[in-house]
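Bug #77: duplicate submission created two jobs. Keeping one. Sequence:
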Amino acid sequence: MTQTAHSHRFSQNAKGMKASEIRELLKLTQRQEVISFAGGLPNPEAFPVEEMKPIINHVMDAHAADALQYGPTEGHNKLRNVIARGMGTTYGVTQNIQNILITHGSQQALSLLSHVLLDPGDAVITSAPSYLGALLTFRAFQAHIESVPLDGEGIRTDLLETKLESLSRDKKLPKFIYLIPTFQNPSGVTISLERRKRIYELICEHDLLLIEDDPYGFLRYEGKDVPLIKSLDEEDRVVYTSTFSKILAPGFRIAWMAGPREIVNRVCLAKQAQDLCANTFAQYCIFEAMYHNILFPNIEKIKRLYRGKRDLMLAAMEAHFPAQVSWNHPEGGLFVWVTLPAIIDARDMFIKAIANGVAYVVGDAFYPEGGGHNTMRLNFSHASDEMIEEGIRRLGDVIRQEMGEKEAALEDEVIGGF
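Kept job's structure:
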C-alpha cells in the first residue's frame, strides 16, 4: 500500500497539519559531536531527584489507592486549591478552585482553549516573533494569525492599537490575543508594566480575551518582578497558563490554567473528550512536593544554576561573536535572542553550523507572517558550561565565515554589474 493510500480519509484539519520546524531541525542535532543550543530543555541538574524520592515513596505509602486511580477532569482538588491560594499570595491574583484546571502541560491548555474558542477563519493576534508551539496549535484549528512586532519592552502597544482599530473597522476582531509577557519564548523579552496596562485597556476597549502564557515567570535572575496582566484583570478577560515543567520537572507533564469560570468549565468539557484527566500520580507528587516545601527551594537552586549559564553564554558571545552581531540581555528565562547582519540568512547558515558541530533555532520559524531571516534563538539552560564555551566559539567562527562569504559575493555582484 502506498504512502498516499489513506490520504483521502484524513480530515481537513489533518491535511493542514505541519510538523514543527524546530523539531524537524532538532533531528539534525542528535549527532553526539553537535553542541546544541536549539531545544528549550531544562537542565537535568535542576531536577530535585533526591528530594523527590521520599515524596514518591510517601505518595505510594499513603495515597496509592487514589494516586494510581483515575482522577477528576478538573484535577486533584488539593493541588488546585494550593495553586489558587498561591496565585493570590504570590501574584495578588485572587482565585477560587473553580477557576483552576490542571492540564497535561501548557501546550494542552493552548490546544483546549483553541478548541473551545476558535472556529475556522477566526483571527488571533500574537507578537512577532512568538512561541512556535502556539502558532502550530492555532493553525491546526485553522485560525488566521495576525502579528505585531516586539521591541525591548515587548509587544509594540502603539502598533497593537492600530492593528485592533483596523480589524475593528473590517469587523474582523480576533477571538483572543496570545502573549508570553515575561521572558518570552523565543526573544527573552519582558513586557513593561506600562505596556501591560495598555494591553489590558485595549482588550477591554475591544471586548477581547487575552491568553497570558507564563512558563518562565519564576526564573528571574536579576531586576524586579513585573505584575501579571492577570493581576490587572477586573473584568475577567485574562486566561492565565503556567507549568511545573520549568520549575520542577517536565516529565510530570503537569500545568494549570486560571481563568473565567465559564471558560474553564467549557475547557473541562473539551478535556473530558480528549483525555478524561491529567496524570493523577504526578499531581499527587507535585502537591506533596509543595506541601513539604521542596518546590520553592528547588526554584532557587534552578535560578542559581541558570543565572551562571546565562552569564557564561553572554560573556562567550562577547568574546567570540563578530562586532556586527547583536543580542539581548534577558533578565530571566531560558533564551538569548541574536540578530545577525542583514546579509545573513540563519536558515541557510544552519546546515553549515551543524557541519561545524553547533546548533541553534532559526528565528524565522517564530514569525507567523514572515520575517526574522537574520535571527536565531539560543538556549543556555541545558548545555554544560564547557559546551557553552566551546559551542559559542564554534558558532562565532561559522558566523564570521558566513559574513565573509556573503560580503565577497556582494563584491562580485558589484564588479560584475560594473
